[in-house]
Amino acid sequence: MERADGGQLGPLPVAASATGSRDTGPAAAADDRWRWFRGQAFWLVAPALLLLVVCLGLPLAIVTLRSFSEPQWGWQNYVWFFGTPVNLTVLQRTFAISAWVTLVCVIAGYPYAYVMTVVGPKMRLVLILCVLVPFWVSGVVRTLAWVILLQDSGVINSVIRSLGLGPVKLIRTQTGVVIGMAQVLLPFMILPLYSVMKAIDLRLLQAARSLGASPARAFAQVYLPLSLPGVYAGAIIVFILALGFYITPALLGGPRSTMLSTLIQNQVLSLLNWGRGGAMGVVLLIATFILLALAAPLSRQPHKTGSRRQ
Amino acid sequence: MRIRIGQGIAFGLLMMTTAALAQSKPVAGEVAEGSLKGKTLTFVSYGGIYQDGQIAALKEFVDKSGVKLLSDGPTEISKLQAQVESGNVTWDVVDTGDFPPYVYCGKLFQKLDFSKIDTSNIPEGQISECSVPAMNYGVVLMYNTEKYKDNPPKSWKDFFDVEKFPGSRALEGSGDLSGGMIEQALLAAGGSVENMTVADIDKAVEKVKSLGPDTIFWKTGADSQQLAESGEADMIAMWTGRAMTTVKNGAKYTPVWQDWLVVMDQMTIPMGVKDADAAYALINAYVGKSAQETLAKTTSYTPIHKDAKPQVDEVTAAFMTNTPDKLKLGYQQNIKFWVQNFEVANEKWNALMAGN
């Protein structure tokens, strides 16, 4: 089992273990070449690594440095951050909104991705297009479309009113922000989910059924655990992207749904306070890391049991 | 060291050109034929119709002087700061909001030499050490005429009185605080704007909060227009340009001109520009009569030349803020106070914007 799992990672380890068992004859030269190639393989990541270091690592280092060095060296910007109640409220709210968005994406994305795996190729193409088209539309345009849908005199409320129910406050509320953000981020949930789900052998479900499991039990004990890696991958991407959202909360939300990015923007662009803006960014980054570290064991566990059951 | 050399060169240039220009006093809108041939100027503003109109207003200047005019933007003070700090300033003339030239005068923006700009036709009280106005506009109280039929609001005091004038309110929440708005809130709360203190800001913020949880803080001009045209808010504090457009689009809203808030954009020259004299020439041409008329015609903003008489339609004319009757009703914020307390005021306003 372990071997087979390792084999899925890529051709290189397989080749290495296969040649490793034979150490004489002409294969030895090929073996050497392989070893050399494997040693050099690192350079294949160099362009991406360079891009990351120059475009992400360096600016991040500068921002972190400035959060300690401006206006003087010290912890002042962090003392300010944690000493100002509004910052903590907004930080907590940023995580809460992101969690809600992630939850909505899981609930909406899971059945969608499942349907994508069971329909015919033509229908699948349509479903994939439905997911991808919003990707090609500017975020601002999409958000403005939501303004028209969600506002008090908007489409959704006129439907609700025609049903004889009172108007529902959607725009400038957290609900509105969560709806808008979930729509923008849904593809990031559906695509990883789909890639995991399409690899699940549906005959496993048939096997479970033939062994007497009810459909619900077959889903809960066979399909769900196998699909969980996709859920975790999607959830982490959605959650992290949601933390940095700026346009959607600004246009769909009110003061009570301001997220941290808006406060950072204010500090840097209006007040030229790079120190405080940097400190806010660093706090958000570290808080995210802590959260991911806490979630990591969670995401590893089912993967293991899942493969053991395989 | 680099800065000191840069300053030295700038100073030297300044002395040389002052001597050269000593004989000829600049006239607004005029530039010598071919005087800037082979030179390039980068003009930075907020984009959209506004910047297009500004470029159109500068066409005569470009044609006559032979300068190559580049357009960049939108204006971001943080970007300008990065340019000035790195000693590589590529923005020659920058259009900014009302506060930055006061807050960063001598730091990011040059103290202007007014022997190089003809300021004689600019309305009083609009010139600062580091800026001349780029255009004028205002913030007016727009109200829904169908909602407040016989009992319309007449002032900002009524705007802040939700008991006598029930209904939803919308005001600007686009980022930078509006000093004039906070002062009106303070007045409505029974405070005084004479000798304002930091505690008065709290009082004003409380007054804004008293408008209730459904108060809308619009983020962009288009946003505010949308609020009026869909009837989402019964009273809206709006930029005059946007107010005009909503009226043209048929929204049943009408302005209250009592104490309309005077706002302006500013023309500035950043520290360390390569050719300050060319930048001065641009600004001097920009404040000229015909340039200002073109600007008003294309953007519907109010010109900053006293004698400018742009040919505009009736509705646009109704929202021009430079007529004597409107000038009488305008309210000028205490710029000095807001500049002195820029940081603390922003912090309090941003806390309100963040729902605290």
From TrEMBL, chain B:
Its main location: periplasm. The keyword Ligase does not apply. Keywords: Periplasm, Signal, Transport. GO terms for cellular component: outer membrane-bounded periplasmic space. It is found in: Periplasm. Residues 1-22 form the signal peptide. InterPro entries: SBP. GO terms for biological process: thiamine transport. It comes from the Bacteria. GO terms for molecular function: thiamine binding; thiamine pyrophosphate binding. SUPFAM superfamilies: Periplasmic binding protein-like II. Belongs to the bacterial solute-binding protein 1 family. This is ABC transporter, binding protein component.
